[in-house]
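Quick check before the chapter quiz. The format below is the same one you will see on the exam, so make sure you can read both the input and the output lines.
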Amino acid sequence: MKNEMNLEKIPYVKIILFAVLFSFIFTELFVLIGKEKVIDAKITHVDIENEDSDEIYDKIWKMWDFFGSASMHRSEVLEEEKKNYEFYAPTDERLFSEVFMDPEKFYENRKNGTLNNKILFEISMLMEKCTRLRDEKKINVLSFEYKGEEIRFPIGLGITR
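Here is the expected output.
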């Protein structure tokens, strides 16, 4: 009788094992398909040796501060945020791409999710290091393409000459 009970349980065990195996394979496939693409980025150096570095770093600090606070905004405050952006908008195309310099383009990308809160937070974290690790001779600039837009902004690498 004891052997008969074990035999009766085997089909259920097989079904349960099959379900677990199927869910594991499906989950792995979903994770592989859903992964972000690898971004091809480059770091360049902008020479600022003969310029007013205090003014340049002040503008970078303002953008860092703005991106950090904007990364916490909900979508319903984007119009209010847009009014303030014209004051902060960078003007140095060596350091920032057009997506940051043109307020209309910036907010178009905020609305469509290209520059969502998570992306702005990550950008602000990279820029924060640039404001702390000042180099009076050069600024490191990270540039890459993301969702069809060129993204370029200053970063700190902790490497100085």
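If your answer matched, good. The mean pLDDT is 77.
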